[in-house]
Amino acid sequence: MHHLFDPRASQRSSAHEQLYAAIELTYTVVDFAAAGLFIIGSILFFSPDATDPALWCFLIGSICFALKPTLRLIRQFRYLKLDKIDSLARDEQSHR
């Protein structure tokens, strides 16, 4: 039986490996976006006229930071789905 957050999950099949790579790439892009938005927001706060854009940068950056654990959880649920599909395929082949 497979469990959530099993460190070996990405190695179960090529589909698992592809999913892992796609989520890691997305995770890294989101991480850089969040950091960039916080840096830009911090710079904008030096100008009193740029307070509103700075706040938007912080809000969007915060949403990016919240997206990071969400991506990891999505990956785990997709692993479970892939495991069920693999299991059903094996069951179907054993009944032939």
**Number of DSSP helices?**
2
Mean pLDDT over the residues: 89
N-to-C CA distance: 23 Å
Q: What share of residues are in beta strands?
A: under 5%
Query: How can the largest sheet be summarized?
Result: none
Q: What series of H and E elements makes up the topology?
A: HH
Shape: rod-shaped
Structural class: mainly alpha
The portion of residues assigned to helices is: over 70%
Structural Rg: 20 Å
Stretches where pLDDT is under 50 for at least 5 consecutive residues are none
Count of strand segments: 0
Explained architecture:
The radius of gyration is 20 Å and the shape is rod-shaped. It starts with 13 loop residues before the first helix and ends with a helix. By secondary structure, the chain is mainly alpha-helical. The protein has a domain at 25-84. Helices cover 78% and strands 0% of the residues. It has helices spanning 14-44, 51-94. The model has no long low-confidence stretch (mean pLDDT 89).
